[in-house]
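Appendix C reproduces, verbatim, an entry submitted by the partner laboratory led by Prof. M.T., so that reviewers can inspect both the input and the predicted structure.
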Amino acid sequence: MISRDLIEKEKCAGSEDAVSQRLRGLNDQWELLVSKTTEKSYRLKEANKQQSFMAAVKDLEFWLGEIETLLSSDDYGKVLASVQNLQKKHQLLEADILAHEDRVKDMNNQANILLQSDQFDRPAIEERCKAINLRYDKVKEMAAKRRNKLSDAQTLHQFLRDIDDEEAWIK
């Protein structure tokens, strides 16, 4: 560096100590700036990770709300054809639920990473993660119950149709 050369060659007009002191001060300030910048960069990356986590949570919450609404339907069909149609739709719904399992796992992994990195909003992360997992488990239970009710409805309507066919044959 130029300042060190000036000090070593004593070309500072007798103020080598002042230049040396000023150089140390600048180096200290530079190290502080680098340290603060590194810390700020780390905090920004952590905030970005948390933002990504919250976006994933919001997406899952929205999706869960839609699925819960669909599974809460009391429509099990009035005739055999409508029951069979509802069963096909329900199979697609269950496939969608199963496909979202990876997204729930990813959200849990993101939460674990955030919690291990000592996030500043730890309680909110834990709470949102727990709520999503509970809702997802409940959705799987609701889907199983609806599948069983649709199966029962299909059995009933098939039985009623068979009776109608028998009565028509008898007449």
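Helices lie at 2-8, 16-71, 80-99, 101-116, 122-170. Additional entries are available on request from the coordinating office.
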